[in-house]
Amino acid sequence: MTVAIAGAAESDLGVTGASVLALHAQAITRALDDAGLALRDVDGVATTGVSRFSATQLADYLGVRPSWTDSTFAGGSAFEMFVARAAQAIDAGQCRTVLIAFASNQRSARSRSLGGAADPHTPEAIFESPYAPLYPISYYAMAAQRYLHAYKADREQIAEVAVAAREWALRNPKAFRYGAGPLTAGDVLDAPMISTPLTSADCCLVTDGGGAVVLTSLERARDLRRPPVVVLGYGESTTNTSMTSADDLLRPGSFDSGRRAFAMAGLGPSDVDVTEVYDSFTITVLLTLEGLGFCPPGEAAGFVAGGRTRPGGAFPLNTNGGGLSYCHPGQYGLLLLVEAVRQLRGECGDRQVRGAEVALAHGTGGILSSHATVLLGADR
């Protein structure tokens, strides 16, 4: 059975003052309305981050009793993983309509805490904690430092990722940095240094916000309110908890998740019209582009140069402004899917990629730890 995304929406974004469940409710009701469905139609729920019993609590809050749930906690990649699980569940007849949702009020709450007490017996606690790294930026900074050294890249080339993201955000009225003005490579390099070589401008935002998508069979979606977006393929890879067990800082799991997704879809990188990848930090984007096969290892810094990923460039990337300039509520992977759906439905106004037929959404979780790739297509 072919599965499609029938509805997609955001909650309020930025600084909302709302509770986590209230933001969930906003995103969910808007996504269901987008699809022309109601809560009574939902029999599958996937979410993470509400509590340790995320799907249970959200289903209870919504007043639904699903026949299928998933609360996989894998960081920012969880939502691309949920698309795979939901497609499999719908295909197996476990459920008919799956709601995938996430929301966080971390900026209003002034907190980024997602875990409990640390276990003193883990390799990270033994070999890394004594050096007091800043979590997670110091780990990504290690990868960036390694990238600069191994590939002889320029620091300005990494900064281009943030510059391009800002250009897209200036075309998105919902972006946190909308109206903030353009960013230059010099601005990125001159921003406060957080963990060498990454400055504050290399880091994602801290905002409130969330989103939701609704999946069902393609046959059913064609009778609903909005044009369906077809799930073409997906793949995932889990590599490490932290840097202690990473074999190679320059070879993240996107090499494997992307290969698997493209194989399932019967497509290749050249078939993708618009790309949405997790940009927790600027270096995350370069490593992911190489892993997904858009360019060979060591060439992403040159690949993004010359405005290639900016509006009007040959490679539309993170077209809503990304986690760097649009929104980042702690786990950003769901909003990658929302933007990919909107691009394929032609709804993005000034930032619309003309003729977009295939979109890729790639989530990264933890310390380059979990990776999930989803390929989506317009239903023509």
From TrEMBL:
List the Pfam families hit by this protein, alphabetically: Thiolase_C_1
- Residue ranges of every copy of the Thiolase C-terminal domain listed in the record: 235-377
In terms of InterPro entries, this protein maps to: Thiolase (IPR002155), Thiolase-like (IPR016039), Thiolase_C_2 (IPR055140)
Record protein name field: Thiolase
Q: Which organism is it from?
A: Actinomadura nitritigenes
